[in-house]
Specification:
Elements lengths: L1 E9 L9 E8 L7 E5 L9 H7 L3 H4 L5 H15 L4 E5 L2 H16 L8 E3 H9 L18 H19 L7
Parallel strand pairs: 1-4, 4-5
Antiparallel strand pairs: 1-2, 2-3
Length: 173
Amino acid sequence: MSYFVVDIESDGPIPGDYSMICFGAVLVDEALNKTFYGKIRPISQKFVPEALAVSGFSREETLLFDDPTETMLAFEEWIKVNSKGRPVFMSDNNGFDWMFICWYFHHFTGRNPFGFSSRRISDLYCGLVKDTFAQWKHLRKTEHTHNPVDDAKGNAEVVLHMKNEMGLKISLK
């Protein structure tokens, strides 16, 4: 299996009614140098200004972003090229990030290379330290900037820390 940490930015709370604006992914390995970045033009007229502001882009800028189908197909190809075995989706907040990525894959390509499941980094950490309230974000090395590649990389650094320093049994191929 190959593990990919993914982070997304959107202009609202749910896919379909609102749009995924951009996303980043990093292959979890010791180098953390295989990344993907996609910027997708909006798919609806609806947006929440405060949600869009988190991405750092204006509505006008996002209207010039790439076609969703082309971007999702490019992401799928990048996943295939960088996978050894089944790709596994990991995220800081997979209830949010997974929802958008899964919806966009199925809506624009008819399939999801990640299948039907994902892993939440916080749950792995809380399990390792046996504390459901444990905080882990201080273990990021890369600053959390809301650039989704930076954020995915910082979260992947935490996965590596859990593997290398805390004994998480994970096979990184």
